Amino acid sequence: MVIDGHCDVLYQLWKNPEWSFNDQEELRVNYNRWINNDVKVQCFAIFVPPDVPEDLQFHSALKMVDIFYEKILKPYPNIKMVKSREDIDNLKDDEKGAMLTLEGLHPIGHDIIKLKTLLHLGVKAAGLTWNNGNAVSDGIGEVRGAGLSKFGKQVVDVLNTYEVLTDVSHLSYKGFWEVMDEAYYPIASHSNSFKVCAHRRNLDNKQIKALISRNAFMGVTFVPEFLTGANQATTKDVIDHIEKILTLGGENIVGLGSDFDGTDGIVEGLENYSDYNSFIQELKGRFSADFVQKISHENFLKVLPK
């Protein structure tokens, strides 16, 4: 079993409404590729680009929720929506699980009811920012580098109450530490090691150790820029980041968060979903069977509410 903590298929289908999830070649994650690999659960992120006008951002988020239900779930009876560990445990052998997540809270503005609406619609993990700043916190690309606002702390309280994962990927450095203090269920859905690749989106050793101390989850991502600092990378580079997290004591937090369909760069040997099985075999050649189980799914499962 494989659980992938992040992809941007919903964004691509929103941007290209004529596309089909079934077999669209341009989609690195599509139904035909999914049904033929060992990925059991895929997290589908709602990502509204920040250039969408403010008054249309929440509507765009709702449109992506609609795409999730109408294009991912409805046509395929063997794809089940999952919201908990129990839902995943109950998947039959021929079934796949789809989890709805949110990348950046800029679509809710200052309105906590908009957040609750998205949670009622099934969002089970929420990234507080993208790279930009919003009413909740600054992102890692915001020069100001501010942490959680008063409203941001209210948001984290709501996520705690609803047992929703609080995602620190893309968050400012100060915001990261404040989430560590405030969130009951912190994760980094798609982030790599800053020590291996000094990209602003990656987490330094101190941050990774903080996630370890919280028994959280950290999904190593397949974005070449975050792996090597360039637009080229190989599966060995992905493994280098996994090994670095392992050396810090991260055996029980490290997992996978591909970011397929959210980036133009391609990792050699991990071009799309079709390569996932061979990558898992490569991991099995490098690590123990027990550790590969943790990387592939167990470390993600343990952070979910029962």
From TrEMBL:
PANTHER family: DIPEPTIDASE (PTHR10443:SF12), MICROSOMAL DIPEPTIDASE (PTHR10443). It comes from the Bacteria. GO terms for biological process: proteolysis. This is Membrane dipeptidase. One of its GO terms (molecular function) is metallodipeptidase activity. CDD domains: rDP_like.
